[in-house]
Specification:
The complex is a heterodimer of chains A (212) and B (10). Chain A is mainly alpha-helical. Chain A is built from eight helices and two strands; from the N terminus they run ααααααβααβ. Chain A has one domain. Chain A has a two-stranded antiparallel sheet with strand order 1-2. In chain A, α2 packs antiparallel against α5. Chain A is globular, with a radius of gyration of 17 Å. Chain A starts with a helix and ends with a strand. Classes of the chains: A mainly alpha (212), B little secondary structure (10). At the A-B interface, α1 and α3 of A face loops of B. Chain A: Belongs to the ERD2 family. Chain A: Keywords: Cytoplasmic vesicle, Endoplasmic reticulum, ER-Golgi transport, Membrane, Protein transport, Receptor, Transmembrane, Transmembrane helix, Transport.
Chain lengths: 212, 10
């Protein structure tokens, strides 16, 4: 464990908690893409099946349980409890255009042709594009609540910190996982446009509104 | 190869 991975995990945890609290306290999921949250729940489910097969550390196991629990709770709040506030018209990204290619790629390019490894690979590829429905929804509505931008910033920062963690681990441990690195680079690049808007607008106290 | 490198990351 290194400082970059630790802060990456904490940033990811913060993002998940911020979103869950935002929906719970405001009793509304306006501006939130339910499709992205479903994709994240799939990402955690397919990636953390090893909870059933191997124990790495208390930290590892507890974080995985928290991620899975919070992501399903968030999906539940969006599609069940606060369904009336779900903006389905703007959450119109065709996720099948993500899941099918990612599923195919996971079967073709992986480290080991075993079920757990293919599911893990699928999860890594899916996570790199899982935020697209959310970014697409913001581009359609033309704006985002400030709390949502903080959620997105933490979500994007987490994988950016993981990129530094992988540089650190390659240099000090000779460890690297090309699949995770390439997907992580793609994932972080997808946030660049948002990062620019976040730094130039939200951090200056303005509301994030895209040029219509 | 991924065989020996455990998946210790989240």
């Amino acid at each position: 464990m290194n400082i970059f991975r630790l802060f990456g995990d904490l940033s990811h945890l913060a993002a998940i908690i911020i979103l869950l609290l935002k929906i719970w306290k405001s009793r509304s999921c306006a501006g939130i893409s339910g499709k992205s949250q479903i994709l994240f729940a799939i990402v955690f489910t397919t990636r953390y099946l090893d909870l059933l097969t191997s124990f790495i550390s208390l930290y590892n196991t507890s974080m995985k349980m928290i991620y899975i629990g919070c992501s399903y709770a968030t999906v539940y709040l969006i599609y069940a409890k606060f369904r009336a506030t779900y903006d389905g018209n703007h959450d119109s990204f065709r996720v099948e255009f993500l899941i099918v290619p990612v599923g195919g790629l996971a079967v073709l390019i992986n480290h080991d042709f075993s079920l757990l490894e293919i599911l893990w690979t699928f999860s890594i590829y899916l996570e790199s594009v899982a935020i697209l429905p959310q970014l697409f929804m913001i581009s359609k509505t033309g704006e985002a609540e400030t709390i949502t931008t903080h959620y997105l910033f933490c979500q994007g920062l987490y994988r950016a910190l993981y990129l530094i963690n992988w540089i650190w681990r390659f240099y000090f441990e000779g460890f690297f996982d090309m699949i995770a690195i390439v997907a992580g680079v793609v994932q972080t690049i997808l946030y660049c446009d948002f990062f620019y808007l976040y730094v130039t607008k939200v951090l200056k106290g303005k509301k994030l509104s895209l040029p219509a | 190869h991924s065989g020996e490198c455990k998946k210790d990351e989240l």
